Amino acid sequence: MCILLRIITALLEIETQGCRLPVLRKNQENEDEWPLAEILSVKEIPGRKLYYVHYIDFNKRLDEWVTPDRLDMKKLQFPKKEAKTPTKNGLPGSRPSSPESEVVRVAGAGPQHTPSRPPQPQAQQKSIPTKTSLPDFQNGTARRPMPNQPGRKRKQPPNCGGTDEDSQDSSDGIPSTPRMTGSLVSDRSHDDIVTRMKNIDCIELGRHRLKPWYFSPYPQELTTLPILYLCEFCLKYLKSLKCLQRHLTKCNLRHPPGNEIYRKGTISFFEIDGRKNKTYSQNLCLLAKCFLDHKTLYYDTDPFLFYVMTEYDAKGFHIVGYFSKEKESTEDYNVACILTLPPYQRRGYGKLLIEFSYELSKVEGKTGTPEKPLSDLGLLSYRSYWSQTILEILMDLKPDNGERPQITINDISEITSVKKEDVISTLQYLNLINYYKGQYILTLSEDIVEGHERAMQKRHLRIDSKCLHFTPKDWSKRGKW
Ligand SMILES: [Zn+2]
User: How far is residue 44's CA from residue 104's CA, in Å, rounded to a whole number?
Assistant: First the structure.
């Protein structure tokens, strides 16, 4: 009996990763609830064990480390068998033979009663075979060396990374390059467990402290820090406040690199070439990845332009958000990734970024669309932007000799640079299209008109095309970027 129990607890120990069970959390009303969650990882810190849980059917941003007392071990479900993850000793996992999830009821076999196991720092390095979209990279190993700048290193004071040059460099063993794990995986079914867990606790960026939502491949040595410090102008990452302060005495940037192509009031946009300002672009991608989960992150920043929106004060041009854009897109994409940093969210900046992306398309004389899939927040912002933009045009139409005004989908698309498909989906979403006597008719109800007017009154931040100084380049004629 004793032996049997020990075997069971040992099994539980091995198998908790990947298991599902109810986990106690507080809902928005601060009430207890027990949603089902999957255990992604286990770690031991002095005196206690922590479990990283992913709440099934919840927003992934809520995933977190929890203490054992919040786990309902009595309702533990073992993972289904198809995931064949070898155990550390190379033997196949000791999963139950039934392919069905199994509810195991082992009273008193909670994790607090199980024998302790050494902590698992290797969980971060565990390489699960994954297919990558780029052949140059494989599981955590960069086959293609990141561009360093040889001969530009200077002697550094001990225990502080960084040079004053345009490089994310280090002399104390912290790799100068981010990890190449996972985020390059384009097929979600091969997602590495590491990349499903947020790994940075807190980022200090200028006067803001940001709580990341998702994994970002910062060097692993930095993931154990309580706070990761970023230079808010060059986005270089540093491991301590002291290092940041030392960096700031040498960093002369007070705005993003590249050309300022727009300024109105305190809002500016800078255009950054991913090839010319590679380090900045990579550091921007690392920061953005903390808040974007759905996109493949490209370390090969060469084919992209980055448009960084800033807000100016006496200290400099502070980053608010950005979007990236392929220099050449065969699919009419005018935005690849787009992000408003959390401290600036829900204040109209997201829509300003979107509006700016279409202003660029207008200058280029093209229609454009954001790369799919959009995040939940991204889709909301785009839907709202498209709706307002299209309604603005429809409501400005004047009757034509007493007749109903007429406009084609093509006209709307050309005026706004919004791709035809997005115009159609927006008209459908707003439920404006009616088919009447062999014709399509757009009907604007009182509700729609009033709702639109209210929304536009709240939209204070707008792009002024007169303040844009932008000449599009024909990248196809430039040979290699
Ligand atoms: Zn800096």
Answer: 24
Put simply, whether the predicted model's pTM sits higher than 0.90 gets the answer no
φ/ψ of 77, rounded to 5, equals -115, 130
- CA of 309 from ligand 1 middle (Å) equals 17
pLDDT exceeds cutoff 50 at 181: no
Question: Among 56-65, 290-299, 338-347, whose mean pLDDT is lowest?
Answer: 290-299
Element (H, E) at 420: helix 420-429
The pLDDT value recorded for residue 480 is: 56
Buried b (16+ CB within 10 A) or exposed e, 309-332: bbbeeeebbbbbbbbbbbbebeee
Predicted local distance difference test score (pLDDT) of residue 159: 59
Residue 207 CA, ligand 1 centroid: distance in Å? 14
Catalytic (active-site) positions: 371
Mean residue pLDDT across the chain = 79
Residues composing the chain = 481
Nearest residue to 185 (alpha-carbon basis) of 148, 137, 255, 243: 137
Q: Whole-angstrom Cα distance, residue 183 to residue 285? A: 11
Task: Give me the amino acid identity at 120.
Answer: Q
Q: Are 456 and 390 in contact (CB under 8 A)?
A: no
- pLDDT tens per residue, range 94-109: 333 333 333 333 333 3
Q: What domains appear along the chain, each with residue ranges and CATH number?
A: 2-75 (2.30.30.140), 203-377 (3.40.630.30)
Residues 6+ apart with CB under 8 A from 303: 274, 326, 327, 328, 481
Cα 304 to ligand 1 centroid, rounded to whole Å: 22
On the 0-12 / 13-18 / 19+ scale of CB atoms within 10 A, 66 is middle
CB-CB contact of 81 with 48 (8 Å) = no
Ligand 1 centroid – CA 253 distance (Å): 6
